[in-house]
Structure formats: C-alpha cells, structure tokens
Amino acid sequence: MDKKSKVIVFILLMSFVSVIGQTIKGKVIDEKGAPLPFVNVLEKETVNGVSTDDNGEFTLNVKKIPVTLVFSSVGFSTLEKTVYKTSYVTVVLREDNVLDEVVLTGNRSKPRTILDSAVPIDNVSVRELQATGQTNIDQMLTYTVPSYNSSNQTISDATAHFDPADLRGLGPSRTLVLVNGKRKNQSALVYVNDTPGKGEVGVDMKSIPTAAIERVEILRDGASAQYGSDAVAGVVNIILKKNIDFTQVNINSGVTKEGDGFNIDGDVNHTFTFGEGGFVNATLGLSYQEKTDRAGEPGKDDLFGVDNQWTRDNPDLGMIIGQPEMKKGDLFVNAEYPLNDNTKLYAFGGFNMRQGKSFALYRPPYWITDDFGLLTPDGETYDGFQPTFETDIQDILFTAGSNFKLGGFDADLSASFGRNSVDYTIGNTINVSLGANSPTSFDAGAYAFSNIVGNFDVSRSFGDVSIGLGVEARQERFEVTAGEEASYIDGGAQSFPGLQPSNALDETRTNVGGYGTLDWDVSEDFLIGGALRYENYSDFGDNFSWKVSSRYKIGEAGVLRASYSTGFRAPSLHQVYLSNVQTLVSGGTISNQGTFNNVSPVIKDLGVASLFAETSKNISAGLTVKASNDFTISLDYYNVKVEDRVVFSGEIGGTDDNGNPNATVQQILDDNSVTSIKFFINAADTKTEGFDYTMRHKNIDFAAGKLGLNLALNINRTKLEGEVKTPTKLANYKNAIFNRKEQSRIISARPNTKLLFGADYKYKKLTAYLNNTYFGEVTWQHATDPNKDQTFSGKVVTDLSLGYEFSDMISFNAQVNNLFDVYPDEIDTKGDVVTDLGGRFKYPWEVNQFGFNGMTFKAGLTFKF
C-alpha cells in the first residue's frame, strides 16, 4: 500500500471512529483507595454523563477522543481529567469538606447533599438492602430504615399478597413513592381486612425488583407543597440503575427452620449501549415462594362453642396460617439517549406479574355440614375444607421524557402511565346454596387502578438563589369487575362472596397542580427555602399547601435544620367508590359484612358526608454532626397533625352503642342480607410525634480489615385528638364508627419504638454483616372492653450475612435471618374468642411487629461478566 493510500485509509478509520464513538471505562476512588459510588462523571460542556456504580466504576460513551471528563461529588474536590485513549482510567478524588453524597429528593430546584439539606433524608444503597437477606424491597427497607415498617399478613384475602407499609407510623396512604423522581401509581387494593393500614391504599412495593435498583432515597418530612397528595409522612424515591459496565446474574434460595417457605429467585441485569452515549439498563427476574404454616392448636373451637370428637381428632382445625404461595416475574428498564449537548431523552418502567395463593378459615363439618361430594375424594368421609384465595396481580409502569435547556433554565418534560390490577379466584370451596351444582373454583371479580401523569418542570440558579417551577396534570381511574354469578348468588362462595354487578364500576377523576420553590443561600452557612403548591381535584375541589425550611452550618462538621409545612391527602378514588360483601368475624360470629361506597344513596341517607381531603401540619427540627466522611450522627424531631383523617368505620349493626334498635339501619341490613355495614368517613384528628436518631461510623481499622458500625432509632407515638366526628343521624353510633379496636390500628398496631444496631466487616474478599433489630411493643385493643386488651412485648431479631468473592466474576452470599428463632408473644384471649379466632391464631395478626416465620436460611451466587 502506497503512502497516499495509507493516508486515505487512516482518514476513513478516524471518520468511522468519530461516527461510532468511543467507550471509556474506569473507577473513582478516594485517597485511601476505597471506591466512591454515585460520583458524577460528565463529558465537559455537554449533558452526556453517568454515575459510578456501587463499586465506583463507570462506563461512558463519548463522540471522540481526546475528551475532557469532569468528576464531581459533594464532599470532594471537583476534578477535570483529559482522556487521550480508551484504556482503563483510575481517578482519585480528594476530600474537600465533610459533607455527604448528593441526593435528588426533597429539593426541586437543584440537588443537595444529605447534610446540606434542610430536611432529613436517608440514602440506602442496594448493597445495604440486599445484605438484609429479605426477599422484597418493602421488607428490606423495614430492616434498614427504623421509621419504615412492613410485615407479612395472613388470612386477610388479597392484603396477604401486598403487605401494607408505612413511614413514621402514619399509615400506607400518606407516603408518596417515586421512581426516578416520578410518581408511582397506587395499587388496586384497599386494605379492608383486620390488618395494620386497614381502610387505606398504598403502593405495590413488591412490583419493583431489587436487582433494578441503584439506591433508595427516603425523605422523612412532609412534602405536599413540593410533590402533592400522599406526601404527608414523607417520600420514598427509588433510583434505578443506569449505565452499568457489566452483566450481573443473581441466584438465591432459602427455607425456614421448620422446613417450609422454600423460595428461589434469579435475576439478570445488563446494559445495552447504542448510538453516541445511549443506553438501556434492563433487569429480568423470576421468583417462587412456598407457603408457611404457624397455626394454633386449640383442641376445641370456641368461636363456634364446639368441643367434640372432631376437634379433639383435629386440634389444629385443619388450618394453614402463614405467608402465601407466590410466583413472580418482572422486567424493568431504564434508558437514556443524548440527542445533543443540551437535550437528553429518557424512558424507564417495567412490568410485574405475580400469582399468589393464600388461605381462608377452614370450614369444619360442624360449620359447613356437607360439600355434596364435590371436595371429598370418592370413598372418603367428608372432613371439611379450607378455601384458597388466589390472586393474579399485574403492575405496569412506563415513563418517557426529556431533559433540555430552555432559555437558561434546566427543563424536564415527561409523561407517565401506571396501572395495577388484581384478579380474584376463590378455590377449593363451594356455594352451599347451589348444592351439588356448585363449582369448586370461582372467578370472584377484579380491581384495577391506573393513572396518567404529565409533568413539566424548570429550575435555575441565580447566584445564591435557586428556583423551581412546575405543573402536573393527572387522571386516575378505578375499575371494579364483577365475578361470575355463582360466586355471589344466594350468599356466595364460602370465604369470599364474589363482587356483584352492583359493585362493578369504572370511575375517573382529574387534578391539576402547580408549584414553586425557592432556596436562598443567605451565606455559606445559612440557607432558607420555601415552597408553594396549588391543586384542584375534579371531585372534591382545591387545596393550597406551603412549606418553609432552613439550615444553618455550625463550623465544618455540624448542621442545624428545621421546617414547617402544611399538607394534604386526597381521599383515594378507591375509598370513594369501593363496595363489596365479605365473610368476616362480625358480631362475634362468622357472617357477611357489607361495605357501601361513599356516594351510595344508602350511605347518603344515613347522613354521611362525601369524602374530602385530609389536611396536615408538619414540624421537624434536627441536628447533624459529621466529623469526617466516616463518622456521622443525626437527631431529628417531628410532629405531624392530621385533621379529618379518612377512616374505615367499624361495624354498624341493627342496634346502636346503647343497645337500642335502629329501624333504618336494620332495613339496610335486611335488604342486603348482611349483618353489618361499613363505609369510609372523615372522622378522626390525629397527632404523631417522634424522634429519629442515627449514628454511623465506617472504615474503622480492625483486625487487618475494615469495620463499620451503625445505630438507628425511631420513637414515635400517635394519639387521637378530639372526639370521633359522627353524622347526626348516627349520633348514637359514635363508638361503632371508630371503636377502640379500629383506633388501635392507628395508634398501636406498629411498634412505637424500633432500634437497629449493626456492624459490617470487610477483610480482603470476605464481607460480614450482623444486624440486630428491636421491634418495640404493640397493643391490640378490644372494641369495647379495655380489660381484654393485650400488649405484645418488644423483641430483638438478629440477622447474620456473609459474603465471599471467589474472583472478580463470582461471589457467594449466605444469610440467617432471625438467627435466634424469635417469635412474637402468643395470644392471650382473656375470654375474647375473636382475638385468636377460636384458637386458630397462635400469634398476633391484627397488630404485628415482624411476622412469625421464625428462623430462615438463605444462600446465593452472583456472577459478573
């Protein structure tokens, strides 16, 4: 090849390289050699950038080389480095001050650090979550964040497949969940059974796979003025993984000490790159979980007043009480593509599908005297049956948008769609009224909730002043589909009469909101900020919320912070329109109970007003001290008052609190073949106050390795203020509308004290975690008789986790959860059969701390390539 040809070939090669771009890989570490996660790596003077992963590594596609990269992380000096070739780059950042990592939640004008923020924020990495050994994100957060609570539910219809979760003791409805900063749709289910969070609606946390998560930011402060409804207790912002430069495969399996509850799961996370700086991070996961059983052994059935030969021969009453069976599959993606230096497109979301099976109360022969041979094998004697409650749950989330420059402002335009649905099948049961013609499996209907959300936000800093402005429009839809006729006709299927045509509906509402935020750094030490938000809902009207906050730095290590805000929570569409009939313990026996929605003429005729928004007032104040990047202490106080709280009423029967008959109510019961009715009502005012304390000391030199210690404490108390707000026509039903038992779900169903004390140790390729979680006492209150209350004492649950890296590609992990096989106190009925449902329950179920599966073993392998 002559010289001229070589020049032409070289030019063509360079042109080709400039078109396809170049890939730069590297790692960011501190001066001690420790990897730095979440460092921003940006191609200078463009929007093309990535963040380092949990190991401090990054992969960045650039148009051409040489290129100048900017490495920044608050707490470290910003570094510019020019890269001249595609070899592996190692970058060392120096500590600049004692501030911590950047968080996106809680400020809508610009990111701040945890310690630079005027409100308390937790930043939990996926590594911390997975070290708990738990299988779902809601349980992982329970064992890492003291003010977050969720536990397995049982014998509670579909609630057993969702497990209500709450923040700071304020109930599932008052925590806003975001994914990548965008609102996540609520679940289709209202928790109408006797569990914590009864009558409320939450987000289906099980729908978000842990393998897709980079970290979780938790704002522990009222944020309605910034984010709108549901943010009364705070905000959980789930940040998805971005451009990871390796494929990761996880395989895990576990089983309880009792040999049940076997589970296995596997997932793969991989990043596909395309174009100049584009990527799609994708996660695919599958899991399987078997049931557990921790039923009581009463030897007789006090619920029915029966002590006969059958109960003596079947002391467990044939019950299965524990976690449900579950099969799950999910696919999640997170994608970005820079169109040019000033515009970036993004999209994220996923699909989750779960099939579950839980169990209802066993129907012994003295309850259902005959199954007409439908459930009894030929030649065998009828011995009763236990119905199953089977769910088909689907959750879909998709968001697409763009970040761009608009006249000097940073702008974000996005649209989101989310939908959650749950279809019911009632199995291994019959409709007695249909006799031998009854099916043994019933399509009992379905619920679905969806929303469409549009957002436009702009922000800009003018020297020491930062502003943010935005608008949001949202449409919500709640759908109820009736079951097959055999599921509800003439009393319906045993355990859950199907949803009737009269329950079916398709209702929507819209709302439009706008907000503004302003932060002013008065000086290097003093910050003051504020936010305003206006919302208008098509069904109940408008709301105006505001917030002021401030932060003051004390020297180089301390921060004082405080905020005051007003907030609101719109009654969920489900609470407005839900109606059904359920087989429950009502009036001291098993019977059908009817829920009538808030717009029903039946409820209107009783003088119950239409639902309207709850309002709140939130005060928080705290102190944080961070002497170094390795040692932090924080203490925060909060006080949240909620007025006109929406509650799910107690049982309204044919006689009032004084035992006097009420002909109007009795006529409703007769017309609908139920023994009691329930409805939603703005009935209570509450005050929740508490303290959050955290202490973390990491990178301690110990036995040739590195030791980390952490201590976290939450103490909170909720109490009712004033009297229960009762409609005039139901003035004599004040106790029934919100009795002591229903009140206890708000004030004492979750631990008022929760303490986490843990240690992590890393020596070469070995990592060990030891975590102790103290769940404080909970109290079950009897509906009318305080002498029958029971307090279940606090307990410590210890978890041990070990990990070993065989190589850069293969690592092993093993966990023992509940190392000392701790269970809650056993139920003492004190003469009240409803407490344990005639001995069927050994451990508390209406109030609970940490479930009752006991010791669990788990092990797994991780592959990176």
Structure description:
- The chain is mainly beta and 865 residues long.
- The protein contains twelve helices and 43 strands.
- Strand 26 and strand 27 form a beta hairpin.
- The longest helix is centred in the first third of the chain and has 18 residues, at 3-20.
- It is globular and about 85 Å long.
- The two termini are 40 Å apart.
- Mean pLDDT is 89; it is low at 7-20.
Low-confidence stretches: 7-20
Terminal CA distance:
40 Å
Q: What count of helical segments does DSSP give?
A: 12
Q: Outline, from the CA principal axes?
A: globular
What is the helix fraction of residues, given as a range? under 10%
Largest sheet, if any?
22 strands, antiparallel, barrel
Number of strands: 43
Radius of gyration: 28 Å
The computed structural class is mainly beta
The quaternary organization reads as: single chain
Q: What is the averaged pLDDT score?
A: 89
**Strand content range:** over 45%
What structural keywords apply?
mainly beta; 9% helix
Q: Could you outline the blueprint of secondary structure elements for this entry?
A:
Elements lengths: L2 H18 L1 E8 L10 E4 L5 E3 L5 E6 L4 E6 L6 E5 L5 E4 L9 E2 L8 E2 L7 E5 H6 L5 H6 L5 E3 L14 E3 L7 E5 L2 E2 L29 E7 L4 H4 L6 E7 L7 E9 L6 E12 L3 E12 L19 H5 L11 E16 L2 E17 L28 E19 L2 E19 L13 E22 L2 E17 L3 H4 L16 E17 L4 E12 L3 E14 L3 E12 L3 H5 L2 E7 L2 E7 L5 H4 L9 E15 L2 E18 L14 H10 L3 E3 L1 E23 L2 E17 L12 H4 L2 H8 L5 E11 L2 E10 L2 E3 L9 E3 L2 E11 L4 E8 L15 H4 L19 E9 L1
Parallel strand pairs: 1-7, 13-16, 31-34
Antiparallel strand pairs: 1-4, 2-3, 2-5, 5-6, 8-9, 10-15, 11-12, 13-14, 15-16, 17-18, 17-43, 18-19, 19-20, 20-21, 21-22, 22-23, 23-24, 24-25, 25-26, 26-27, 27-28, 28-29, 29-32, 30-31, 32-33, 33-35, 35-36, 36-37, 37-38, 38-41, 39-40, 41-42, 42-43
